[in-house]
Amino acid sequence: MSGTAELVGRVADLAGLVEYQPGSVVSREVVKRPTGTVTVFAFDERQGLSEHTAPFDALVLVLDGEVEISLAGTPQRVRQGEMLIMPAGVPHALTAVERFKMLLVMIRG
């Protein structure tokens, strides 16, 4: 599946929408609306995102593996089936403890 239109009204395996790639971060946008986005990511081991802020609240749901997310300088381990809500404007970064997949929901408002 490559487009988002074919996902509408159908059951989909979120973790299966992206595949791991050695030394890389892979993403697939599932929903893009003026009110927010939903994106699935696959991070290889030790890959990550440097510290940054976002203008909107963000919810991370780990679909597979484990990630360390630093939120306002405090590191937290998030594992498969767990989530973390990151408030708008709060600095955060993430590093794959092991390869992992996540669903990122950004809410604009």
TrEMBL record:
Superkingdom in the source lineage: Bacteria
Domain Cupin type-2: 50-105
Family matches, as CDD domains: cupin_HP0902-like
InterPro entries named among the record's database cross-references: Cupin_2, RmlC-like_jellyroll, RmlC_Cupin_sf
Gene3D superfamilies: Jelly Rolls
Identification of the protein by name: Cupin domain-containing protein
Species in which this protein is naturally found: candidate division WOR-3 bacterium
